[in-house]
Each structure stands twice: as C-alpha cells, then as structure tokens.
Amino acid sequence: xxxxxxxxxxxxxxxYQTARAIRKKPVLSQQEWEYMSFVISDAIESGSSVRLTxxxxxxxxVWEGIPVIYAGQLHIVIDDERxxxxxxxxxxxxxxx
Length: 97
What we know:
Number of helices: 2
Oligomer: single chain
Strand content: 25-35%
Radius of gyration: 19 Å
Mean pLDDT: 90
Low-confidence stretches: none
C-alpha cells in the first residue's frame, strides 16, 4: 500500500507523530519517595555511589555518581563534575557499592 502525503500536510503529520511519542511521567507512591530519600541519604553519609534514573519525555536518563549536598541543594558528582539533581525528574535510585 502506498501512502501519498501532500506537502502541506507533512508538517501536521510530523507534529502529530512527535506528540504521540511524548511519554507521561509515572506517579510515584509515598513509599517509593521515602525509599529513594533513604538510599540517597545513606549514600551521602557513606560517600557511596548511586544510580539515578531521571524521567525524560522521550527516554529516561541514567546518572551514576556520588550524591552530595552543595549550597543547600542536592547534587551528584560524576567524573569530577558536579551536577544539580533535578528531584522533580527522579523516578528510581539504586546503590552501586
């Protein structure tokens, strides 16, 4: 089957396909938030590494490093680079050590 698309409709089709590909962020339970907070707090105290999964509209990002508190905010040190942790995107935390 051959599908013909008029040039003036191509933009609308591309927008529609992009909108369909966008995912919705999962809703985490209170228990999941408490567990992630515990793992991060424990890692800060012990200086151990964690794997963080951050939600993205098209695909998730995974950061691995050591969580630290800097200027009152949560950061993660990855390869000697400090990044602010976007807590609103956090969906999973696991320990590495």
